[in-house]
What we know:
This protein has 13 helices and 24 strands. Helix 13 (about 315-325) links the parallel strand 10 and strand 11. The strands form four sheets. The chain has a ten-stranded mixed β-sheet. Helix 2 (about 110-125) packs across helix 3 (about 140-150) and helix 9 packs across helix 10 (about 235-245). It is α+β, with helices and mostly antiparallel strands. It has three domains: about 15-165 and about 260-335, Alpha/Beta hydrolase fold, catalytic domain (Rossmann fold, 3-Layer(aba) Sandwich), CATH 3.40.50.1820; about 170-255, no CATH class; about 360-550, Galactose-binding domain-like (Jelly Rolls, Sandwich), CATH 2.60.120.260. It has helices at about 80-85, 110-125, 140-150, 165-170, 180-185, 200-205, 205-215, 220, 225-230, 235-245, 250-255, 280-290, 315-325, and strands at about 15-25, 30-40, 45-50, 90-95, 130-135, 155-160, 175, 175-180, 270-275, 295-300, 335-340, 345-350, 360-365, 370, 380-390, 390, 395-400, 405-420, 425-435, 440-450, 480-495, 500-505, 530-535, 545-550.
Amino acid sequence: MFGVDWRLSERRYQFSEEASFRVPLADGNHLQGVLFRPRTDEPVPVLLSVHAYNNEYQTAPIRPTGFGYQRGWIEAGDPTFFARRGYAHAILNVRGIGASSGEFQAMGRREVLDVAEAIEWLAAQPWCSGQVGMFGVSYFASIQIHVAMLRPPSLRAIFAPFGLTDFYRDMWYHGGILNHRFLLQWKDKFDNVRYQSWVRRQLGEDAYRAAVARALADEEIAEVPQLVEALRDPVGGNGLVADIVLQPLDCPFHEERRVDYRATDVPAYLGACWGLFGLHLPAAFRSFESWHGPKKLLVGPALYLDRPFYQLHLEALRWFDHWLLGNDTGFMEEAPVRLFLPGADTWLEAASWPLPQTRWTPFLLHEEGLLSEHELWPGEHSTGFEDSPFGHGEAVFLSPPLVEETDILGPMTLDLHLSTTDREALVFASVFARFPDGREEELTRGWLRSSSAELDPNRSRPWRPEPLLRARRPLEPGEVYRLQIALAPGARRMRPGERLGLRIKAADDEPPPDAIRGAGYGHLQRSTAARLRVHHSETHPSTLHVPVVRGNVLGTFLSGGQLPPAVGPLPMAKFRQPKGAAGSGPSPTS
């Protein structure tokens, strides 16, 4: 790739592959994987990719296909691409995985320190120029962001799109509700995993067994056979699942796996895709907002990346050429934020996030399923639905058809007033576009366990309420609770005739529309039959705050933007006054 006045490293090297490549660690353990090196006598920069999956398939010559759970863990990219262009590329398993020694940490503190140590060992090798970058997506990206907070002296830049930064909120417990489907699929991708229970070490054997017994007695957990199996046989990957199940509230285990966003100066390339609202998307924006060093953000269409992935390699080469080779391609002079806008199917550029022109427009929930900017009418009350193991009802609210092209782009919030006959309510809120032919496209989702709705005043923003998730307080049946629910950022250009919709349920039993959005489905459900009510009265105004960045100047039209076909007769009876009334004039005559 080249521009008018810049050129990237050229494809001109043959390369060698060193299988069973080892990096020694100070505690006597080692990280093992594979190293690709260009054939040259000159020292070269190194790219490091670190992960918890099968290492052999990361570099297998497989033709890429669309993202799916079968190949979703093949995330190291194509190392031959970089080796041919003058970079060494090391792909290593974390400790306790594959042929690496030690015990698996699942992004724990020791695992992150290992990678920082490996960076300095690689930088000191005679074939390395002393410049090290990190590369890869998902697990590969998550650990990069953690390592960048340690600022290893030889780490010059990370390329870390699709990275989690808060495993508790981003993947394991959405809004405090266990996302068991994705968790159970994820743990099966670990290669030769050796995990020792963190909870068992903290509690001791007797207290650990008592905690397992309590979890098995929990009706929400007991309804998922794979969770029961993991609790009864907590070995290997099951041991990690058991630890996650046994810690449903935010606690030190989860804090250890949360990025602390220190004042790092490591340059970071961040990103995600719009469909990953249940995995990487919130973290991408969180990282961009919190990053202190040089940064870029890219959010693409809801497709993720092919597996094995290759689409961002030229972008990454330009990034690493800039930071590891001093090849100024003008990259950092370009807009720091690039966002794909579905519906328009084009890219937007911005200097900051959220976009400064954003207007969070209140759409109130009304009776008869109306979603509108119109103020509540006197006498409006609530909309009810049932939830039970025999059927999961819903409340759906739709805007009138839009009459003007409107761009929605940003985080959404739902200010929901809810009551239930149960002592708990699991809320699943989804925002969608409904097209004139009846099709729907989901834009984003939000979740909240109602008993854990207390907000964190230090982390919350008007457009992103953050629950503490450190306690559960049973609900009083029939009492109305105000729940402030953050929905992940969403984006779409809405066209005239389309409607904006909101669906509220107490379960996510519907099949996900695709493998990408599926990461946000598959949570625990209540085993108790309950009647829930969404309140939308003058004293309980449930409201969806929609991030409008263009259009919707006049708002939606309850008329649908349709004028009457003809002028009808005036209701004259309402205007006439009785004969003899004070001030009445003579009757009109023909």
